[in-house]
Protein 1
Amino acid sequence: MASITKRGKVWQARITWMDSSGKRHSKSKSGFKTKSQANQWSVQQESVLVSGVQIDKDSTLVDYFDHYIEIYKRPHVTESTYKGYGFIRRQLVNFFQYRKIKDITRTDYQEFINSYGSDHAPKSVQKLHSIMRGCVQSAILDDYIIKDFTQGVQVVANKDKMVKVDYLNLDEIKRLLNYTIDGINPLRRYTSRYIIVTAIYTGMRLAEIQGLVWSDIDYLHETITISKTWDSVNHRFKPTKTESSNRTIKVPDNLIKLLRQLQAVSSSTMVFVDQFGQIPTSNAVNKLLRRLLDELGIKRANFHFHSLRHSHVAILLSQGVDIYAISSRLGHSNISTTTDTYAYLIDEYKDKTDDHIISALDQL
């Protein structure tokens, strides 16, 4: 219900409504020069109410982002991921200050992406945009806004900011694998070498490898089951990255033999606990990896432990393994994640795949 009244030389409009619990609310605005302007405002506000948006919700974008992260994200993400949201929050404060979420337009948001993208790599911009799309969709569902101002926005980025990794070729991967195995001394139980070998043979993420327990290893069927990861900061198990990351993968006999060798001298339920009763950290494993590459005379810019996952994919592609099988083995939620991440490798082995296609067609 709307009421229009005159106060001195200006007009005031007030609307009242009842929420779903029966509680009465009101909102007013004054300073209109004409009665028609006041009436037009009240009609607009009532139209918004009819659409389901609660017009008394007057949150800033930053405040709603805080609400979204605390209520909908924090219970389901790791501490490191949660800290990353703080970085995005600072970008929002720097650009939007404390503007109301309902006042932000698609043009405003595009300008924000343009500004952020001018000095950040594509992956960073895409990640921020993905989180913001989720936030805005949540704001719509919570009746703070009507339109999705992130929809149809062009994601722009600075490709010069991309960290370029110089990956190993197949010969170098084999040399690294053999050299790492040759240096293993099970009696000393420096498990970082075992972790590197496992990564090359399986393509598993570091936290997945760190979280393995002996019951995850099926020696009879030569498989490893990934159902959890290891939180190196808080020293506890945590869920896998996504539901699709829960998987059981086949592993070669060479790895099975090494794991049997390690278990024979282990007194822990966890596979990669070393002689000091600890699981090697990311820093420790990467330090060893860099030393091994230096000793082999292999110089590769920005190559680190996670790059071994790429090395595993390169091995499989070189043997003609189907990309769908690779995606499942890596624990990706969909095939597009695999093709986007390893597009450079897929292109590299395209000629070999084409030869397989022609060979198959020639058999018809």
Protein 2
Amino acid sequence: MSLWSRISDALAALSAGEGLTAIFDKLRAPPERSVAFAIAVIALGAKMAKADGHVTRDEVTAFREVFHIAAKDEAGAARVFNLARTDVAGFEEYATRIHAMFAGQPETLTDLMEGLFHIAMADGFYHPNEDAFLEEVAHIFSISDSDFRALRARFVPDAAPDPYSVLGVTPDMDVDAMRTVWRKLVRENHPDAMMARGVPEEAVRLAEKRMIDINRAWEDIQSERG
């Protein structure tokens, strides 16, 4: 059964009057967590789309880059998106339920944040309302300010990303300590490690960009330090 078929099964509960927040509470164990992850990206992405006032074709395309959606499954994905967009529940409630679901798995919450950043930047413009939205979601997810800034530095091209921010280190750290952080990030972002966290196979492709950014940051630091 495909991911999207399982999502359709989960949405069947809505016929009984349950909302998406109730579905989040039910999808707590593997393999259902991968379904919950996909629904979370769609639902929070829909709420974020309201933050900048509109949904562009670029944003839809960006979502497809993260999750491959077969033609037969498009209706299910669209249903999740439209439900989230019209649901009276605020994004804070969604984020709180998702945080509870992945408690003890901060890496998975960071994966989800990356998906949202990817969608936010799809139209080439990072709206101030999107920034406020993502900063609040990060706060609910217990993602530190420094880690949030590191994510933003990688995705928002206001300037060349600061390699220290990307790795989450400071210039006054010893090079060997920085190397230890870099190696840890490489291990944590290996596809096998991501799959073990219950991330859908489609979302693992986000790690490709992440690994490029991590390795480029380390190379820049090495060059700077000689």
